[in-house]
Backbone:
């Protein structure tokens, strides 16, 4: 049988490697001869930086370890393919490389830009009458892809965020006799799914954040001030979750407000991030209470140690489905997650036309945001809760989660193939 | 039999509640009648804000949940008792409250300041011929207390830090074709134990941070620059761990360098933290590569979801031992952890004179820091490794770690005792 190639692209996530594992396992089952991995996505492919995954992942425990390893095993890239008309040579080069290696299936795991790559390559393939199949498998912690109920990667990031906010609320209330404001900044430039996940911490043992601000709603500093003032009347310890992308009605990002006023550094650079830092400084001035800005930063996209089993399994199935689609002769599609029912949660894997996905951004529906724009509704909770359920416990070695690392495997393979005397 | 009171003080940790559980369980076993908890430490005691822990923790699963709940169940305070000569009235008041409630055992779980409280109260008790016993149980993620091999709380924070840095290194290397510098800022004003724990990530699947800077060694910006330049020659993705407390030879904190040059905010406040932010901005200017500062912030002291079983058990034993010491008629002591051997690791709980602990700060020994001051030795690893071993898995409810929360228990108790018609 022919060969398959798989790549990963865009930002890291806790479960993108589980999708890779799904591709690998199903491709082996379906009898693909070589299963190539692109190093650093399409960029690596262009330089023929390919690894033979059957050689690299040659033990069954390595597949399990791969499913528990965050970030992108094969390495990633941020590379937008030019339009076909603009750069035919690039497309010819890619297809030449694929043909030379007898690759008939091309699977790309990633977010919006990656689906754009699948769209262009499958379009080009149809144009030139190629029999190579191009299928995308979605991956993004941001949960902002169209046509799918949710994206692999979101559930695990949401679980980490909700856990961290729950723990930080406990941290804050130890000084319950003093007034404090903690402000947690969460990723999400245009879509507030991750920040909304902070609300999952609400439960019998936790009240959750007192306010949640998403980029889907214009931010109003005066309304924010009044909200916080009212909260401080009622309670001593206030916890607020904000998306890094919140912005005023005129489009100014809150983090830019901080940049203008505050934070050109010693070298003239504008400060990175800073939404929480700005609001914390603002609250400290307005209310004279102790504030603490917390940025979850990269941790939220790579904390596989507390990933969601549901998410890991769906990511795996999504990768496996991409292989099936290739075997069925389909092309230009993305695998989707299709929620059949919510209680009990049943989710199938489907397929959609990648043209409907690339360059579309799906945001939190306005009906799931409370009227005053400072929280999310129970509908959101009902939507998101199943996605964080179940534990995918790490393999602990020497007290720490163990990972499968490509370069280490490549080095080992090379020393095995070229033993020193 | 008589009554016992227990309090918690200082910053939160992942296992201070396990020490509380140890006190509670052993005090029950030893037949104390009432087991009081001070709300917000000695400050709460002065206002007689006490809870009856037998009423609050009345189910055995609640003890287990308490051991898995981060921060301070009873609430905390930062309150330094005045010297005896300066404020006799305060001491008289405290002993009056204790005598009134027939409290014969006083246990305080905390760090340096808390041990200072035990020292003063036991000194006063001896002065006035009181039969109340005062024993301290150590707690600090900082690991900076004298007379004990290590402190409960350190192992779990170290485990979280090493896990996070391992995951962030994977996050960083996905763009292995681009040069990047990640700088992770870790707690520790004067003692570098927590930052040193980043080195625990070194292993078969991870090279660990490329450089580690502790406050025990004067920081030299020029040497730092040369180190980073050399690293960028050898590899694309550089990870550096820094303690928030690193400072120049003249005593200037690195975060103050950023404060002077950069970060007076819109309201004239100096920026919080910022060691990593300053160094990241510096590196970006010097080397023109993408940098990312990451502050672990409060997460490192409250992330009980990945706490160390060894740490949790030792914290529990330490609390239990404090009760034993009271029953044996001892006073003015702190429980200690005594490492009997390292492989296999055996650790007993001992006692020491609290006078030798309060107001002493124990730092990382210089012989465990490499000669160029930018890493730690294998001796440190051998010391710290056993402390992070073993898993204390959270009880997961609705996809998130469940916690025992005092105010919720108090509210429940009140509604049980005063049922509405």
Residues:
């Amino acid at each position: 049988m022919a060969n398959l190639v798989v790549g990963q692209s865009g930002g890291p996530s806790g479960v993108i490697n589980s999708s890779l594992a799904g591709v690998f396992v199903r491709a082996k089952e379906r009898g693909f001869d070589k299963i190539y991995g692109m190093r650093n996505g399409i960029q690596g492919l262009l330089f023929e930086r390919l690894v033979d995954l059957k050689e690299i992942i040659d033990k069954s425990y390595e597949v399990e370890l791969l499913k528990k390893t965050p970030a992108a095993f094969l390495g990633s890239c941020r590379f937008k393919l030019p339009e076909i008309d603009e750069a035919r040579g690039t497309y010819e080069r890619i297809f030449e490389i694929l043909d030379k290696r007898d690759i008939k299936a091309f699977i790309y795991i990633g977010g919006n830009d990656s689906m754009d790559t699948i769209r262009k390559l499958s379009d080009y393939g149809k144009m030139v009458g190629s029999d190579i199949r191009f299928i995308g498998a979605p991956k993004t912690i941001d949960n902002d892809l169209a046509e799918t109920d949710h994206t692999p990667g979101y559930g695990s990031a949401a679980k980490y965020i909700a856990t961290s906010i729950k723990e930080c609320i406990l941290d804050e209330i130890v000084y319950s006799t003093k007034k404090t404001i903690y402000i947690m900044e969460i990723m999400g430039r245009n879509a507030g799914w991750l920040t909304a996940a902070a609300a999952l911490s609400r439960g019998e043992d936790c009240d959750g954040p007192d306010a949640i601000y998403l980029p889907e709603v214009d931010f109003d500093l005066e309304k924010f001030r009044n909200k916080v003032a009212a909260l401080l009347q009622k309670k001593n310890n206030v916890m607020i979750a904000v998306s890094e992308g919140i912005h005023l009605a005129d489009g100014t990002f809150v983090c830019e407000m901080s940049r203008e006023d505050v934070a050109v550094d010693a070298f003239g650079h504008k400060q990175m991030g800073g939404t929480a830092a700005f609001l914390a400084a603002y609250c400290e001035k307005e209310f004279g209470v102790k504030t603490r800005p917390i940025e979850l930063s990269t941790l939220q996209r790579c904390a596989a140690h507390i990933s969601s089993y549901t998410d890991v399994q769906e990511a795996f199935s999504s990768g496996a489905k991409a292989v099936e689609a290739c075997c069925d002769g389909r092309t230009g599609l993305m695998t989707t997650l299709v929620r059949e029912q919510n209680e009990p949660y049943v989710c199938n894997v489907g397929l959609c036309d990648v043209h409907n996905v690339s360059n579309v951004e799906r945001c939190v529906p306005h009906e799931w945001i409370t009227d005053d724009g400072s929280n999310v509704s129970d509908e959101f909770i009902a939507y998101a809760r199943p996605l964080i359920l179940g534990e995918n416990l790490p393999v602990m070695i020497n007290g720490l989660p163990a990972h499968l690392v490509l370069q280490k495997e490549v080095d080992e393979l090379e020393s095995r193939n070229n033993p020193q005397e």
Residues 154-173 of chain A form the longest helix (20 residues). Residues 157-302 of chain A form a domain with the Rossmann fold fold (CATH 3.40.50.460). The longest strand of chain A covers residues 333-342. Residues 26 and 324 of chain A are 8 Å apart (CA to CA).
